Amino acid sequence: MNLLQQVVNGVIIGHAYALVAVGWTMLLGAARLVNFGHGQMYMVGAFVAWWFMRLTGLPYPVAVVAAVLVGALIGAVMQRLLMRLTLSRDLVSLMIVTLGFGQMLEGAAGLTFGARPQTLTSPFQSMTLHFGAIWFTVQDVILVVATLVVFLALRLLLNATKFGVAVRMVAEDPVLTRLAGIDIARVYMGIFAFEGAAVAFAATLVAPRTPILTSMGFDQVVTTFVVVVLGGIGSVGGSYVAGLSLGLFTALFGALVSPAYTTAAVFALLIAVMALRPGQLAASANFAR
Amino acid sequence: MSARLEIENLRVAYGASQAVAVDRLVVEPGTLAAVVGANGAGKSTLVNAIANWSRAAPRVEGAVRMDGEDIAGRAAHEIVKRGLQLVPEGRGVFMGLTVEENLREGAPSDAGPGRRSYSIDDVYELFPRLRERRSTAGGSLSGGERQMLAVGRALRMAPKSLLLDEPSIGLAPRFVALLLRTIRSLVDDGLTVLLVEQNVRAAMEVTDVVHLLERGRLIASGPVDEMRDDPRIVEAYLGGGHG
Ligand SMILES: Nc1ncnc2c1ncn2[C@@H]1O[C@H](COP(=O)(O)OP(=O)(O)OP(=O)(O)O)[C@@H](O)[C@H]1O
Ligand SMILES: [Mg+2]
User: Fold this and answer.
1) Looking at A29-33, A192-196, B166-170, which range is the least confident one?
2) Does residue B16's CB lie within 6 angstroms of at least one atom of ligand 1?
3) Are the beta carbons of B105 and A171 separated by less than 8 Å?
4) Which residues are bridge partners to B220 per DSSP?
5) In whole angstroms, what is the distance from residue B176 CA to residue B170 CA?
6) Which residues of A have a CB under 8 Å from any CB of B?
7) Contact by Cβ (8 Å): B228, B208
8) Nearest ligand, CA B16
């Protein structure tokens, strides 16, 4: 175990955390909404890709596209179901309903995909690259590059496109946005579809690292929550930095202190941040950074 | 080119308390009508209800016709698309967006017959100050600049009728005159405008018709030259002097 390898691992895991969280960042920043079904949507993304490959025999990249489309669809359906709660921004009800939605997804996935662990096979997972004492896989490289691309694209979308400006208008003042002739229900639909597509995309890139289980959603929702809170709720750039920092923290804590207490340490960190910077819990108006 | 706005039997209530009961209010095409009245008279409630827009979701009944088409009950963004535009009281701009981003959303150039579309440059022509401030965030503008931007945003939607709720509030007299003169020039170009104004004296300079609202009801209406001498207006708004 060398330290440099741990840093490399931390960077990779950090990008995974950031990519998994990007959809929720958008949801929270633009729509001031939460989705505690996020983790189960991650799980469904991974299983849809796995199932798709098994059923069709088509290669992994095609399965990624299929999972992203299904993810976007789940997000859009969720928005339709939650329309009234979204428009009134009733956060407590939303929390409970999205938790329930996640449980439904988990139940349905259990029935459809079975309870046994499976492996989402990516051909890039077995391609390793060695540089002196450190190594990583081509899958890791794809994950890091894809995360950077998604974050940069999101910033560009928010700052330079008509839809992005509409999203920022909704973020600041949804009621006033109506007077710009914008159907805000459709903007919310786009935001939810992005959340669903992004978490599914993340799942297909991250899941090949470990076996997948239909019960794995909960861990994902927890880490995502930590990333989003650490990043200063709803800030795009903040989430990226928070994901990366959390990845480095877990990798180094696991190597230098104890892997058994990593999760506890992450929660301690979360509580410390929430106690020290309570102002951050109010979503920032300029989340497009 | 311009639209006739017709309101009939409009009733607006917040919960059990009725805030507006207007039997009939017509704004002729290409004219400017001012609604004046005390604080709490129901001016904002009235114009918001016409646009079916509100932060408080009051109950609204009645007919709102633009060129004969009943638009009451349609979603606020649909009404905007049909050419009826509200500039709401207070904050009508996005603080986190730059001036140019605020002006980005607009009606398509082929919005429909009889609608004059305004490009971002057209808005800058009208309010040159906004061009200088194009990269400034809405939240960093002065009150006057903000109101210009709010009007500019409204024009970008290529309205046939414009409802303005106290556009001059908090502005220096110089800005009030500038803004109201600009609005008048838009009316002379064919826009139909319903203007809520608490600066009655300034409104009288530009308007064609005055409506006096009291406790949600129109208690007097008429051409500006008659209303100037109406004792109820003179006493309450023109400082008891003569018109
Ligand atoms: N959200 C609301 N909930 C309950 N009552 C309201 C609400 N908004 C306004 N009202 C009431 O409706 C009446 C009309 O208010 P409105 O804001 O339309 O008056 P206004 O003429 O625009 O006043 P101002 O000159 O102060 O802007 C008032 O009695 C007010 O208390
Ligand atoms: Mg008012």
Assistant:
1) A29-33
2) no
3) no
4) B212
5) 9
6) 162, 165-166, 168-169, 171-173, 175-176, 178-184, 285-286
7) no
8) 1
Q: Is B41 in the pocket of ligand 1 (CB under 6 A)?
A: yes
Q: Which chain B residues have a beta carbon less than 8 Å from that of A169?
A: 94, 97, 105
> How far apart, in whole angstroms, are the C-alpha atoms of residue A51 and residue A54?
5
Residues B8-17: b if buried by 16+ CB within 10 A, e if exposed: eebbbbeeee
* Model pLDDT for residues B84-94, shown as the tens digit of each residue: 999 999 878 99
Q: Dig out the tokens for A216 from the structure.
A: 């794995």
The angle that helices A184-206 and A162-172 make with each other, rounded to 10 degrees, is 110
Class of domain B5-237: alpha beta
**Closest C-alpha residue for ligand 1 atom 14:** B42
HSE-CB of A276 using CA atoms within 13 angstroms: 8
What is the domain partition of chain A in residue ranges? 18-214
pTM (2 d.p.): 0.88
Among B221, B231, B193, B227, smallest CA distance to B22 is for B221
The per-residue pLDDT for range A145-177, each reduced to its tens digit, is 999 999 999 999 998 898 999 999 998 999 999
B14, B216 Cβ separation under 8 angstroms: no
Per residue, the 3-state secondary structure of A101-120, as one string, reads: HHHHHHHHHHHHHCCCCECC
Per-residue pLDDT, B241: 46
Nearest residue CA, atom 16 of ligand 1? B42
β-strand partners of B25:
B7
Per-residue pLDDT tens over the stretch A233-288: 778 888 999 999 999 999 998 888 888 888 888 888 888 877 876 555 444 556 66
ipTM confidence: 0.92
Q: How many whole angstroms separate alpha carbon A39 and alpha carbon A163?
A: 27
Q: Which of A162, A176, A179 to mutate to test the interface with B (most CBs of B within 10 A)?
A: A179
For residues A107-116, b (16+ Cβ closer than 10 Å) or e, as one string? eebeeebeee
